[in-house]
Amino acid sequence: MQFLLMLVICLAFLPVTPAAPFFHPLWTAVATWSGVLLLSLSTLLWSRYFVRRIHDRPDSRAATLRLYTRVRLFHTLACVGWYVASLFLLGWGTVVRETWELGDVILLDELLILAPFLLGICLEWLGFYDTEKALFETSTRYSGQTFWGRMAYLGYHIRFYLGLVLAPILIFTGIHETMIALMPEASGQPWFLLASAGLLLFIILILTPWLLKVLWNARSLPPGPLRHRLEAAARRLGFTYTDILLWNTRGGVANAMVTGVFRFPRYVLLSDGLVNGLEPEEIEAVFGHEVGHVKHHHMALYLGFMMLSLMVISLTAQLILPPLPENEADYLGLLGDWAKSGEIWLASVGGLLFLGGYIWLVFGLLSRRCERQADIYGCKSVSCGQPDCTGHDGLILGDAPRSLPLCPTGIRTFIRALERVADLNGIQRDKPSWRHSSIARRVAFLESLLWQPALEPQFQRRLFLTKLGLVTALSVAVVVLVVLTS
Ligand SMILES: [Zn+2]
Ligand SMILES: [Zn+2]
Q1: Would the N or C end of the chain have less CB density within 10 A of its end CB?
Q2: pTM of the shown model
Q3: Where do the domains of the chain lie?
């Protein structure tokens, strides 16, 4: 979901927006917003149908859920499709930037261009609220609990899905546009580009962990046996962090994550559903998985991978795509010329789609390998180091000497934690996951380690070579392309 949002937002922020081919600006606005309203009306109708079906046919709940998932997916895709059509065919971006002359107003044009999409997504959440509520209230897992209020539900979704994607982009664009407005002649200078890149890096490295804490309304995990246990585990594993946070989802999500490439700010977030639904040693294992991401430098790797990939793709685009207008006169010449502005826009969209496909494929593969590596680290974090141990019988590893090898009990504890997280989140065991692999595959790999411990060093060796190969190939490609384009 966040990935799709990121792509759509990049689309809206492209410097060239195609001009409307035949519509009057007023018609463009009316048509764009009518589409959004019609789509949200359809969510209300679907939601009424699903609520009735959930109550009337409780025995076919699984089938209802499947249909609901499919309808939601199509609906989100329809929202995206309509938005792309309103940009490309109706010229909504041109109306905002040129007809209303808002192109130079800091952030306002971007927000207005995005508005039909953002509002469409919010109306979709509001529209399907009743279905989600009915599903929650008829589920055996949550008996006795009350569901969110409508606005609290919307607020949570905005913070969880939109906030994390939108906030860094808006902060970056806001500062960047202010810099251009203050120093219009500097925007082409090399130091300006360097400063922009530095700003972007600062936002990603320093601001995002903190933004996440604020947006997700996460508080410090209160003192007690669990916190004590996790702090001891962190000491044992030699892991430094700013804080362990409890992230409130009203029990709806059982999940954990770690943010921050540097020691500060670095947070480990544990959701309430995870803390309440798992045994202490299982929470420790999940915590160990998150520590594993830091210990194996996965975030720095992802960041390096993304930057190198972006450089390769933008340098390639420079070589093969039509050039962007370089000065004001050329840019103005494009306006009103649908064929020309559309050509540049289509080329940019094509580039963006290619980038999306590439990241989906290559980053997905890398991420699934790294998750597996973190899984192994999670097993190690609750292992006692005895290869023939038969159980820990309440043994708390505490401050024992660190970096212990795998033990069967540690592996089994982590597998139990995985299965329970899947169960709490209502994830089917064999459902594929872009960034994580299916639960079934993750468990099968860990189980194979029980019988063949030699698979672990073999896996680590292969992954190391994969990472090295990937970074080397991308670096070489950057150097070659720089030589070709200069
Ligand atoms: Zn992970
Ligand atoms: Zn053991």
Answers
A1: C
A2: 0.86
A3: 1-147
